[in-house]
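I hope you will forgive my troubling you with a question about protein structure. The record follows directly beneath this note:
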Amino acid sequence: MSVEMVRKLYASMPAIVDKARKKFGRPLTLTEKILVSHADNFDTQVWERGKAMLALRPDRVAMQDATAQMAMLQFMQAGKKKVAVPSTIHCDHLIRAEVGSEKDLLRAYDENREVYNFLGSAAKKYGIGFWKPGSGIIHQVVLENYAFPGGLIIGTDSHTPNGGGLGMLAIGVGGADAGEVMAGLPWEVLHPKLIGVRLTGKLSGWASPKDVILYICGLLTVKGGTNKIVEYFGPGAETISATGKGTITNMGAELGATTSVFPFDQKMAAYLNATERGDIAKLAEANRDLLVADQEVYQFPEKYFDEIVEVDLSTLESLGCGSRSLSIPRKVL
């Protein structure tokens, strides 16, 4: 991840966020701060949740090998010499885990040689990062190397929202969307509604972050997040590690959600430092106000979200065969 890219984004955010507060006449959620900061044209953009189409400028594009083939073929039709935004291809989906890592990898090379050769050569030609087979799983590689607080990334993989664990809007898309953004066009998406999830308490016993999202899935169902972004907040959020947050946002796809996101905190700073991105951690800490919702949003969330869910982490038990919860999260319309 380019530190200069992050620095440039943070430098541009204060003015556009302030303009959005004035235009909307109210404080902003974290989701809104990221969306307005990535608008193709803020002044002409219509902002109406659930109705307007947003034209956005993502910071990055990530593709996995199964979907990257069509995405690259579509991009090549644009006749561009280089991609317009930083992009990467990750060869992980065509590897079948059956025998063991060494034999499985050799078989993948043998079965998909033509695909890997095409993607590798296309990546080299168009200035795209290429993560060869065996380099890691796409959404985890993105979290460890490219995700950063306040960013916007699209990926041709349903687990792209994993990046929300580092405070960015990370959204899974189709290959055509990726191809258009790489060609320099804005990315269009229905203006999502917002679900606010307030976390209190702290996980204990065998309970883990996956139990948080499993309870929310049970409450909202597999369609409850369709055309919506889930934004987490509250004192409980700060007790969960960055990788734990990633687990929660990753599985938000099971709600049908556009994506999910957590506000920046010290857990994220610690993860950035642990993954040798201390310079980005310092930038994020210096711009923390841009990477969390405005304070009034946290004080009166029902005024700024379309729906509120409250979860007391201390009441959750580990979900396994035959297990149950001590309480059911409360849904507030």
User: Anything to note?
Assistant: Residues 3-24 form the longest helix (22 residues). The chain has twelve helices and twelve strands. The two ends are 39 Å apart (CA to CA).
